[in-house]
Specification:
single chain, alpha/beta, 8-stranded mixed β-barrel, globular, binds ligand C2E, binds calcium ion, EAL domain-containing protein
Length: 275
C-alpha cells in the first residue's frame, strides 16, 4: 500500500530525529576520545614523481569508537570543529606525529592537517613551538596542510598566523586545491610551499578532458609560481604516467601506499627508527 503524505513526513521525521540523536551522541563521545586514547594515526607516503623517491608522510586520524568501531575523519572532524573539540584533537595529532617523526632516522617530512578552527586559536604559534621543543622535531621536517576555507573567514588574521608559523621554519601546503573556495588570490597573497591538487582531478582525468585540462593548468601554474605541486589520489600506473609527462613534483595515493599505522618500532612501514 502506498504511504500517505502524512505517513511519509512522519517517516522522514523519525529518520531525521535518529540522525540528530546519532550526531549528538558522537559529539558527546568525542569529548572523551582523546582521554580514552581512542584516536589512531595512519601515515600515508608521499613520493617525488620523477625519481620515485619517498619524501614524507601525511598523517591521517581515525577514531576507534568503543561501540561503533572505526569512524572516518570525514564523519567526526566536522562535528569536532563545531563543538571546539578539534582544538584538543588537533593538538594531540600534532604532538603524536611530531614525537613519532622525531625518531625516524632518515629526516623525512611529516605533514599534518590543520583545521581552520585551529588557525583561529590565538596561542596556536606558542602551542606549535612547545610541541617542536618537546619532541625535538626540527621545524623544517614539519609541514602543515591547510585548506583555503581556513583563510576565507578572516583573511588578514589567517595570513598573519601563517606567516608566524612559516617564520618558525615550518612549511605550509595548500590542501585540496581546486575545490571549495580556491581562488588564485590566496595563492598570491601567501607564499605557500606546496600546492596539493585535490584527488578528484586526477581521478577523473582519464574520463573527463575538462578535469585533465584543469590538472595541467594547475601544474603549469605551480611551475610559473615556482611552487611544487603534489597530486593526490594516484591509484593507477596510467595516472602516474600522466604526472610524469606533465612534470608534476610529488604524488600521494594507493599506488604508492595506503595510509598505514606505525610499526612496532615507531617507524612507518619500510623505514627504520633510530635507537
Ligand atoms: P585530505 O587531507 O584530503 O586527505 C586525503 C584523503 O584521501 C585521506 O582520506 C586519504 O586516506 C585519502 N586517499 C589517499 N590516497 C588515496 C587514493 O589513492 N584514492 C582515494 N580514493 N583516496 C585516497 P581520510 O584519511 O579519510 O581523510 C579524510 C579527510 O579528513 C582528510 O582529507 C582531511 O581533510 C581530514 N583529516 C584527516 N585527518 C585529519 C587531522 O588529523 N586533522 C584534521 N583537521 N583533518 C583531518
Ligand atoms: Ca590533507
Ligand atoms: Ca587533500
Ligand atoms: Ca579533503
Amino acid at each position: 500500500a502506498k504511504a500517505s503524505f502524512g505517513e511519509m513526513i512522519c517517516y522522514y521525521q523519525s529518520e531525521m530525529d535518529e540522525a540528530v540523536r546519532t550526531r549528538r551522541q558522537i559529539a558527546a563521545d568525542l569529548r572523551y576520545a582523546v582521554e580514552r586514547q581512542e584516536l589512531r594515526l595512519l601515515y600515508q607516503p608521499q613520493h617525488a614523481v620523477q625519481t620515485g623517491e619517498l619524501v614524507g608522510y601525511e598523517v591521517l586520524v581515525r577514531w576507534v569508537h568503543g561501540t561503533r568501531g572505526m569512524i572516518s575523519p570525514m564523519d567526526f572532524i566536522p562535528i569536532a570543529e563545531e563543538t571546539g573539540d578539534i582544538l584538543a584533537i588537533g593538538e594531540w595529532v600534532l604532538r603524536e606525529a611530531a614525537m613519532a617523526a622525531a625518531q625516524w632516522d632518515n629526516g623525512l617530512k611529516v605533514a599534518v592537517n590543520l583545521s581552520p578552527v585551529q588557525l583561529q586559536q590565538p596561542d596556536l604559534v606558542r602551542r606549535i613551538t612547545e610541541i617542536l621543543l618537546e619532541s625535538g622535531l626540527p621545524p623544517k621536517r614539519l609541514e602543515l596542510e591547510i585548506t583555503e576555507s581556513a583563510i576565507i573567514s578572516d583573511k588578514l588574521q589567517a595570513l598573519h598566523m601563517l606567516r608566524q608559523i612559516k617564520a618558525l621554519g615550518i612549511s605550509i601546503a595548500m590542501d585540496d586545491f581546486g575545490t571549495g573556495y580556491s581562488s588564485l588570490d590566496t595563492l598570491h597573497s601567501f607564499p605557500f610551499d606546496k600546492i596539493k591538487i585535490d584527488k578528484s582531478f586526477l581521478m577523473q582525468s582519464s574520463t573527463s578532458p575538462q578535469a585533465a585540462a584543469i590538472l595541467r593548468a594547475v601544474l603549469a601554474l605551480g611551475r610559473s609560481l615556482k611552487i611544487p605541486v603534489l597530486a593526490e589520489g594516484v591509484e593507477t600506473p596510467e595516472q602516474l604516467e600522466l604526472l610524469l609527462s606533465e612534470g608534476c613534483a610529488e604524488g600521494q595515493g594507493y599506488l604508492y601506499g595506503r595510509p598505514q599505522p606505525l610499526e612496532a618500532d615507531g617507524a612507518p612501514l619500510g623505514l627504520g627508527a633510530t635507537g
